[in-house]
Amino acid sequence: MKKYLMALVLIFTTLTQAQNTLSGIVSDMKNQPIKGVSVYLPELHKGIATDENGKYILANLPNGEIKISFAFLGFSTQNKTINSLEKQTTLDVILEETPFEMDEVIVSTAFNKIQSQNVMKVEHESIKNLQRKGMATLIEGLATIPGVSQVSTGTSIGKPVIRGLSGNRVLVYSQGVRVENQQFGDEHGLGLNDSGVESVEVIKGPASLLYGSDALGGVLYFNPEKFADANTFKANFSQKYFTNTLGSNSSFGVKNSTENWKFIARGTYNMHSDYKIPTANRVTNTRYNETDFKTGISYGNAKFSTVLRYNFNKLDLGIPETGIAEQTTTKKTDNPKQGVFNHLLSLNTVLFFKNSKLDLDMGYIGNDRSEFVDSNVASLHMKLNTFNYDAKYYLPAFGKLETILGMQGMHQVNTNFGNEYLIPDAVTNDFGFFGTTNYEWKSNAIQAGLRFDNRKIAADAHGIFGEENAFEAIDKSYDSFNMSLGYKTNLATDFTLRFNLASGFRAPNLAELTSNGVHEGTNRYEIGNANLKTEQNIQTDLNLEYKTDHLEFFANAFYNHINNYIYSSPSGTVLANNDVYNYIQNNARLYGGEIGLHFHPHPLDWLHYETSFETVTGVKQNGDFLPLIPANNWNNTIRAEFKISKFLEDGFATLNVSSTFNQNKVSGFETDSKGYTLLNMGFGGKVKLGKTAFEVNLNANNLLDKKYIAHLSRLKTDGIPNIGRNVVLGLNFNI
Questions:
Q1: Range in 135-139, 656-660, 684-688 with the lowest mean pLDDT
Q2: Which of 91, 122, 204, 321 is deepest in the core (most CB within 10 A)?
Q3: Which of 525, 482, 530 is nearest to 508 (CA)?
Q4: Considering the domain boundaries, does residue 720 fall inside one?
């Protein structure tokens, strides 16, 4: 027995001891070492910062191909690939100064390249930058990204819209797992908090090749907060105050890393009163409370890397029903309200072989949603349990040809516990497999892929046929083949062209198949259609980018054709004192794009001017306009960066003017919306008071207290304006 134990110890020691080491020096163009450069291996979730001599050392690295990024503010990011590590490998890097944002590694696409090398245009934004804009919620910050909007109910509930598509047509990923939280409902928000999130990547267009059904319109991919550098302990506390909602957001996090083990945890509490409109009145019952907890543990060595993460999110959401009624600053919600509990558990494991690797993701999402109307007993209570798996095998590289073979699946169970049924009890099963390849030569790259998917939906019968909230049993199966083809090239020095052609699909959801009752907040009696077909689209994207040291320009254009687009249409009849709407299908097309400029004049190195314009038009085959299409928007920002002696570092001041135009291209049951212009300001930086250092940002959004109603606001039909002036103070301490 002792021999077996000694053998196990020996095997474990062999696996965990350092096998390969990578070291080097990072310097600038003048050959001066740079201290504090982030040296990060994304596949191993492992990083370190260079010392005062610009030196770094990373141990316990795998034998095969490894990707490594070098990033530092004010310098261009470099992404290196080492095909085969030796026992001791040396890699020295020279970083070039740049006034623009760092070129980040894109995780949401197949081959995890930096954006300048990527075939597909992906918008990357750090959560820190979004928070500096002083937005009250995560979705408000996302809506500042060109091509992204939100369908909102007050300040607490927001649903992402990407180029005119929303709901089940946009996938949301967190911790590498698709988030499933009954997202078909208009009153169902993201259920995600921005604390403990590093950055977000936005794929604008069909991404079914990598993500399967429901990625027809695009993907929001949230990257979790990174672990601490090796042999480092960090603690952090942040506090934000919101004057309009008298709100508070408190967050505390710790993280610790050894050479092989890593741990992270963060807790956040968020509470807000009813929001105030420019007339000084508050919109009754738009108050909400949120509790969020995230934690993770990781282990990695030369053979494999594994990360286990967990996220708990609890939401107590007031639902505005009476408009402007009782005026109070309480944060305790009244009926009607929602209580939502989200559990997200994810496990990512990467196995490294000699010249290849296997990337495995497994996830569980538990969504417990209750709605309270006139008592403390939930009238609507649904539990949605979802299990996901995703396996990608990266084949050995053949020259400059990279290939991935993948398989994905999902098992989902919806169960009702309340008296009111929004959708029936049902089971959904997905299965798909795909292959994609990337080939580079000189400044060119081409990427192509093919995928097959099957979705099966089986729903139970409920109630008495012919009565409200009664459902017939259904058993449906949907198949789809999809493809993608992308090409990237440099037309000239600093001038890049990207062209992508991709298809996507979406199987009809349970609400569209089975609805039979009054839909909350719409004053419509909706009737589903069990004979709906799969939505299938094909989209073309063209991206042009010009980037020099002092000027950055981009232009994106897209055309999206959707067969069998599903929407609700009035039937001309009345049930339960509400107009009846049926779910029907029609071909549709959406087209538009984004254009922008970032000017950094020399020698005014502290000054930045950014401007962008976005537009989208959506029409049915018969020429009628599609619903929930965002209005055109023109966004302008002047940003100054500065340092005040030793008192303030990384200082910034911003002036933003956001102009939203009239929206008169509306669907039959919508009304026109007037345009408006909002003025926003911000100021902040890193403050040093003796040995105490902290980050501060002060924002004033809607500074002029402009009265306006956004076209995609669900309170628009009641004539309720959006939030008025909101001053936000944020403090961030590293302990």
A1: 135-139
A2: 204
A3: 530
A4: yes
